[in-house]
TrEMBL record:
Compartments (UniProt record): Endoplasmic reticulum membrane
Protein name: Acyltransferase
GO cellular component, one term: endoplasmic reticulum membrane
Organism: Gymnodraco acuticeps
Keywords assigned by UniProt, alphabetized: Acyltransferase, Endoplasmic reticulum, Lipid biosynthesis, Lipid metabolism, Membrane, Transferase, Transmembrane, Transmembrane helix
Keyword Transmembrane helix: yes
Record-stated family: Belongs to the diacylglycerol acyltransferase family.
Keyword Lyase in annotation: no
Documented EC number(s): 2.3.1.-
Main location per the UniProt record: endoplasmic reticulum
Gene that this sequence comes from: LOC117534113
Transmembrane residue ranges: 20-40
Alphabetized InterPro entries for the sequence: DAGAT
Topology term for the membrane: Multi-pass membrane protein
Amino acid sequence: MNSGIDSNKGMMKGKTKWKVFLEVVSTLQAVSTFLFLGVASTLLMFYLMFTSLWPIPTLYFVWQVVDWHTPERGGRKTTFLRNWRAWDHLRDFFPIKLVKTAELNPDKNYIVGIHPHGIMSLGAFTCFSTESCGFKELFPGLRSTLLVLAGLFRLPLFREYAMFLGILPVSKKSLTHLLTNRGKGNAVLILVGGAAESLFSGPGVNTLVMRQRKGFVRVALEFGADLVPAYAFGENELFKQVVFSEGSFRRRLQELFKKIMGFAPCLFVGEHMGILPYRIPITTVVGSPISVPKHIKATEEEVDHFHKLYMEALSKLFHEHKVSCGLSANHELRII
């Protein structure tokens, strides 16, 4: 994939200056929210505690404690925020496209693995937490729910924003609620590689962390949810990252931080101002479902079997679509 100035100009051809401005502002809003909203809202609340406005954060923190388990009980998704016009501009900035390769029966539940994680998972967010990419039209009868780091739901205000978008924590309680209390027609999206995978993100890199990640397969077997692989081509191209060699001191520091805080401190840069991602097309291809039986207490052999099937299906999906999605034929998929 090309990320040069000429490529960007080509994608902006035919767009008015106003349209380009709206795309940039919408993308900056999404990126800034990802990077700063959690920290800013937390600092603001604690600051207000030492001012004459202290009743506001006090009441909020009391309410947050009372409301503590709501994210794991389905949250409170709002149609208004998911249909916000800004998401259409975010989609068009790159642009982002959602591609279906097989039908998904709305009378079943699915656990969809999204790869790669990238720096910010903008493809997964736009396709499955907003209505801008036509998920409902492509998969009628299905409800998409993106699951992310559970620790984010401890952050004041940020948790409300995430829940309004239908984003929920990736925890066993949350998965149990979605796959039992909501009936059928649920597509639960999990970024399998997580924070560890973000450390490998960079242009031309297709490295997935998942050989030892089998929890999503165990959950699929426990609830009889079919597994579906999905690959977001272009996600790793959005930012340039300083990737430290495995085993180096700086890499160990990143991994230690990830172990303590739950997310990895990536050193990355984009275009203008450093935080605006490159205008690289993102194509999220959703693969065919892998039928999974319901085994409440699955054996390790069963887990390994379906985990292997999933990795094979994901690899096949990658190689079948890599050329049409902008990669060269010699690009390989590395799974660690």
